[in-house]
């Protein structure tokens, strides 16, 4: 690595053309300027100037070093500007979130990006283990999961909770809902539905519920934004966190049925421990808080 002090002295020397003026600008003595030049030449193994009395011209090596030195100066200037001006509307923010919260959150970020053309928000829906790994590896600036992580490399902020919902076609069944009426209607299955059924049905249907593997499945789909569609069309019921329902465009054609013993999932915002979050990431995290808080008021 070129010594930064020697390099800057040399660049100033090429700009002034005088050792004395360079010494004044750098706050040095004239012999000190000569010493910096000599040390830089020794480090490179090439002469950088060719002297002609009090004047000098650059050697080919000197011309090459000037290009590098000015480029480095510009890079340092840009770096300082970036550090001093932490603009919330400039840069990339990467998010990883599990479950239906991704489909609810993403549309709320559109206005933010439209107002800030240099803000790039990348959201990825992923399993919770992948979200946690992505935050630890630095692939995600922020993650949203349904439990507090027990990892010393991570920090987590509790956002609130959302209800695990029993979702039916509009006016398909009348309350009170029975397990046999649900079996007759049939289940719209998805990758998380067995876990959700074990949580919700075991609390509400007692001995009638023999386990998720005994549920009558009418159809299945693995894209969360597509799960409500067969329910809307009368093919069966499903179980989803509220965020996965509220994000559905035809939400008015679905009905959430309340069971006596509801189940709620927590939402946690996760980021790397000790990291000072840039303004753009803090801005997006505030929108995440607003979106999650709206779930609890519904």
Automatic annotation (TrEMBL):
<dbReference type="InterPro" id="IPR036388">
    <property type="entry name" value="WH-like_DNA-bd_sf"/>
</dbReference>
<keyword id="KW-0238">DNA-binding</keyword>
<dbReference type="GO" id="GO:0000976">
    <property type="term" value="F:transcription cis-regulatory region binding"/>
</dbReference>
<keyword id="KW-0805">Transcription regulation</keyword>
<dbReference type="Pfam" id="PF03466">
    <property type="entry name" value="LysR_substrate"/>
</dbReference>
<protein>
    <submittedName>
        <fullName>LysR family transcriptional regulator</fullName>
    </submittedName>
</protein>
<dbReference type="Pfam" id="PF00126">
    <property type="entry name" value="HTH_1"/>
</dbReference>
<keyword id="KW-0804">Transcription</keyword>
<feature type="domain" description="HTH lysR-type">
    <location>
        <begin position="2"/>
        <end position="59"/>
    </location>
</feature>
<dbReference type="InterPro" id="IPR000847">
    <property type="entry name" value="LysR_HTH_N"/>
</dbReference>
<dbReference type="InterPro" id="IPR036390">
    <property type="entry name" value="WH_DNA-bd_sf"/>
</dbReference>
<dbReference type="InterPro" id="IPR005119">
    <property type="entry name" value="LysR_subst-bd"/>
</dbReference>
<comment type="similarity">
    <text>Belongs to the LysR transcriptional regulatory family.</text>
</comment>
<dbReference type="GO" id="GO:0003700">
    <property type="term" value="F:DNA-binding transcription factor activity"/>
</dbReference>
């Amino acid at each position: 690595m070129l010594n930064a002090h020697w390099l800057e002295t040399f660049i100033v020397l090429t700009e002034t053309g005088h050792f004395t003026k360079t010494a004044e600008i750098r706050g040095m003595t004239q012999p000190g300027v000569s010493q910096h030049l000599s040390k830089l030449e020794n480090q490179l193994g090439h002469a950088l100037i060719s002297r002609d009395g009090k004047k000098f011209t650059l050697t080919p090596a000197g011309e090459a070093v000037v290009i590098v030195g000015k480029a480095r100066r510009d890079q340092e200037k840009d770096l300082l500007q970036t550090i001093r001006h932490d603009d919330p509307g400039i840069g990339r923010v990467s998010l990883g979130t599990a479950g239906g919260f991704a489909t609810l959150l993403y549309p709320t970020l559109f206005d933010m990006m439209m107002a800030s053309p240099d803000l790039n928000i990348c959201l990825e829906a992923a399993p919770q283990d992948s979200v946690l790994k992505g935050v630890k590896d630095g692939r995600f600036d922020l993650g949203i999961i349904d439990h507090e992580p027990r990892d010393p490399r991570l920090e987590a902020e509790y956002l609130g909770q959302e209800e695990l919902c029993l979702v039916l076609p509009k006016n398909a069944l009348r309350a009170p809902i029975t397990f046999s009426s649900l079996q007759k209607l049939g289940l719209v299955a998805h990758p998380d539905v067995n876990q959700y059924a074990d949580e919700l049905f075991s609390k509400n249907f007692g001995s009638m519920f023999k386990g998720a593997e005994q549920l009558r499945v009418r159809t299945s789909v693995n894209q969360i934004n597509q799960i409500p569609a067969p329910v809307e069309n009368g093919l069966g019921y499903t179980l989803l966190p509220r965020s996965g329902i509220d994000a559905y465009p035809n939400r008015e054609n679905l009905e959430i049925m309340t069971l006596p013993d509801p189940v709620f999932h927590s939402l946690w915002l996760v980021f790397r421990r000790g990291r000072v979050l840039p303004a753009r990431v803090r801005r997006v995290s505030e929108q995440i808080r607003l979106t999650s808080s709206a779930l609890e008021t519904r």
